[in-house]
Design a protein that fits this description.
Number of strands: 0
Helix content: over 70%
Structural class: mainly alpha
Radius of gyration: 21 Å
Order of helices and strands: HHHHHHHHHHHHHHHHH
Distance between the termini: 60 Å
Number of helices: 17
Shape: globular
Strand content: under 5%
Oligomer: single chain
Largest sheet: none
Length: 427
């Protein structure tokens, strides 16, 4: 009973910190994820807590479902706050990041994992495809603002839409790694089946069915006779219902649920676009996402030390993490944005802020629960270090970089106004 009471009290403290820390950190070059990881790491030093902290690889199914929940909620929030109409031209930067930047990243990381870490093809591909997507949860600081809020410049829009789609679009490569692990090599694979099912069918079903669900639920919310409109309830938790319906329905017909949730959110956003209820749903999704994120990142910080997540690190693994974040992602996306017509500053911001996070953890847990991979402990340690460095590196740089971006655009946003509240150095 004492343990239960302590856990309840600790959760209460975490809830309060969820509301309070973002306000306190707003003017500092720190992020909420950094604080969460630090709290978890500090708690794991306490012997009673450290002894109870398991390695994530030993509870892959639990980790898979926990990270899955926060990712799908994050995808709903990301889709609801995009004001830009969906289209081939208007989303051209997104298609470049997804069609050129992400495959190049996966290819480069797979080659790097094989050459630097000595991994087999299946394990190297799993590591590369798990680390390729920009995380929709931890990338919230570099995304667009609330619905109908004037924060939708090109870098923020590109990172929001990329994070919304690339978690789902990394799935074909993860499934390919699982198939490789099962057959033991390329010769036993059915390429036509993988392309037809894992690439074409599952992506198409996710996009089409997800969008149809979003449009149908948009009609229920905004276009029924006035007394029957779902939007009249004013309840933001409807966003959670939409998320679960879209994810469940797409998964049932063997599509990619991540793609389905984001597609449903974008389609729902297009229904009665100026309605205030979009803001209500988004705010609820954002609050729930932030709470779940804090819980998981405190756990991530705890397993770094108490759970021995980094115990299998090697110097080549450290080099892999640094090269992945500082060279592979920026260079791959920079190549993808050549000819996009965007400024050098915009391309630099988009290419640099490829934040890695809970999506990576989800893919590793999912894949290792479906097949046996060589060097699993090394995979977890390398991915864990990469996520940790990303949280620290991008968390420290996001505030000054976006503040400078706002100043360059002459936007009078909260980000830019923070400078007015800080003491100026005297000559």
């Amino acid at each position: 009973m004492e343990t239960y009471v302590v856990v309840v009290a600790g959760f209460g403290v975490l809830v309060l910190l969820t509301a309070w820390l973002p306000m306190v950190l707003r003017a500092l070059p720190l992020s909420l994820p950094i604080c969460c990881v630090g709290i978890g790491a500090a708690l794991s030093v306490i012997p009673a807590i450290g002894e109870l902290t398991p390695h994530p690889g030993s509870h892959a199914k639990l980790i898979e479902h926990a990270t899955e929940a926060v990712v799908v909620i994050s995808l709903m929030g990301a889709g609801l706050k995009i004001d830009r109409l969906f289209g081939w031209r208007s989303w051209s930067v997104t298609w470049r990041l997804l069609g050129i930047g992400m495959p190049l990243t996966i290819l480069a990381l797979t080659a790097l994992g094989s050459a630097l870490l000595g991994l087999g093809l299946a394990s190297a591909l799993l590591l590369g495809s798990s680390l390729a997507p920009t995380d929709p949860v931890l990338a919230s600081d570099v995304q667009v603002g609330h619905p109908d809020e004037d924060h939708e410049d090109e870098p923020r829009f590109a990172l929001t839409s990329e994070a919304g789609l690339n978690d789902g679009l990394a799935f074909p490569f993860v499934n390919f790694a699982i198939a490789l692990a099962g057959t033991g090599g390329l010769t036993g694979l059915s390429w036509s089946h993988w392309f037809a099912v894992d690439v074409v069918w599952k992506i198409a079903v996710g996009a089409i069915l997800g969008a149809a669900i979003g449009r149908a639920l948009g009609w229920l919310m905004f276009h029924l006779p006035n007394l029957s409109k779902l939007s009249r309830t004013g309840d933001g938790f409807v966003a959670l219902g939409v998320t679960c319906i879209a994810y469940g329905c797409v998964q049932v017909v063997d599509g990619y649920g991540f793609v389905g949730v984001f597609a449903s959110a974008v389609a729902l956003r297009s229904s009665s676009r100026g309605h205030d209820y979009h803001r209500k749903m988004h705010d609820y999704a954002e609050e729930l996402e932030r709470l779940l994120m804090m819980v998981l990142l405190v756990g991530f910080g705890a397993v770094l030390i108490g759970g021995g997540l980094l115990n299998d690190l090697t110097w080549p693994a450290v080099a892999f993490a640094l090269v992945a974040l500082l060279i592979v992602r920026p260079l791959s996306c920079w190549i993808g944005l050549i000819g996009s017509g965007r400024s050098t500053e915009d391309r630099a911001v988009v290419s640099f802020f490829g934040i890695r996070g809970l999506g990576t953890v989800y893919y590793l847990a999912f894949a290792t629960g479906h097949a046996s991979f060589e060097g699993t402990d090394l995979l977890w340690s390398t991915a864990g270090l990469t996520v940790l460095i990303s949280i620290l590196l991008h968390g420290v740089t996001v505030t000054p970089v976006l503040r400078a971006l706002d100043r360059r655009m002459g936007r009078d946003t909260e980000s830019a106004q923070l400078d007015l509240t800080l003491p100026r150095p005297t000559a």
